[in-house]
Design goal:
It contains 10 helices and 15 strands. The protein is an alpha+beta fold and 513 residues long.
Amino acid sequence: MKIKLLILVLVVSMFSGLQAAENNTGQADQKEKKPAKKIVRAFLELGINLAGTAAYYWSNYKDFLEDWQFTLTWKDQQRKFFTSEGFRLDSNRMVTNTIHAWAGASYYSCARANGLSPFSSLLFSTGGSIIWEYVAEWREISSINDHIFTSLGGLTFCEPLHQISTHFRSQPGLANRIACFLVNPVVAANDILDGKKRAPRIPAEDWSDFRLSLGGKEGPVAPADDSSSHLAIDVDLRLVTLPGYGRPGSGSGYSKQPLASDYHISGSFSASKYEEINAATRCVMGGWWWKDVRADENDGLHGSECWLGWFTAWDFFQKKSVVPYDGKWLGKAEAWLERERPTRFTDKLSSLHLVGPAFNWTAYAGALSARVDLDAAFDFSMINSLAFNEYTALHDDWGVKTTLHNWGFYYSLGYSLGARLDLRLGSWRAEAGLKYQWFSSIQGSDRFQEQVTDDSRLSDSRLKYHAALSTAIPRTPLFLSLNLEGIDRGGSFHEVTAKDHELRFFYRLGVTF
């Protein structure tokens, strides 16, 4: 019941915030013409999406037999709809559960790419989640984590991609058409469907910082790794959609539209396969802004601007597995699967930063500029237990949380704190940032709760910090960068505590676009 109330409060508060933003008309500088709403097409695309995924699900039903707990009888469906037996945290692997954020993004995008607001689009991802969990998957429990990742994850995952794809869509040229499609295929596909009736491509008054880099990484990546050197690739897209940002002007107000969007994906690779994957999205959905920036003909911009708003974000982190049972689907017939002792799970994370305050301050002094971002959020996460491998070397783990035993992770509630600094002087750029996360396990809602004999609390922490120095190559869009990154992990389960420290060094050649 506590979990149900928590989800209800989160969804209602998110809806209220989005609706309030829609109804606020105090922002005088956002008068751009909104695209026409195509509500019928939005529902048609949502229906096609749900029908296609449902057809795939049922055509591959043998892969999901272990999930089926309810028959099509009034007694069983009553249990699913009206008792706690039908509303649980599921026992699927982390990748399967994370995919629900992508599904939610596709539902959300059906509305957003057809001109509907963030609030209406959130209704689409929430409605799509309810239909999927209670209609398409009528044989299964209604998964708490799937509802969160599909509904709120749809907003968290898709809104930044929508903003960035819209930026590319507004620019002329084939390269921008390709970029729009890669970032958000639904926006690009609808543009093709509109044909000559599509909205004109008018470059938006936004500020962008898009970078792609390729290089090497030195430092630990995965257990039993033969080499500390790996190929590293990094895509970092930062977009500010608050009109007038980075340009002269003064004033204050409230923006009912998203202020800033970030998308980041990076990975390191060996000759055989990936070693580590990182991905993140972030969107400041609205807020208050102030600015006093003036232009000097001989010395650039002077002054400062800032905003205080609310944001939502998502993080994903996955190390290469070293054993087949770590995340690989091997079939499932029982609640607890046979695992070796001690287990050898590697670190992994999928975290939704559901909602929290975000602050930005940017200052200009001629050739020198500084940007500071601060944020804090309430999180729902799936996190690998750092202490579990060591615990299984000392104890029999049969009867613990099913995801913990089978896949090494657990569901958690927690919080995150983040800070980022960006200094620029001419062609030089220095960056630094840190992010701290705390995770505490959820008890009493396991899919097979009646069979759980050890539902003890787990906790973990993660501190990630980085620093970078880069310089632009004159008369080209290229840059060279040196980066340092550290990850400090801690965790506990029963009397077992574990700590881990990793430090990596990157060297990259990149391009800005």
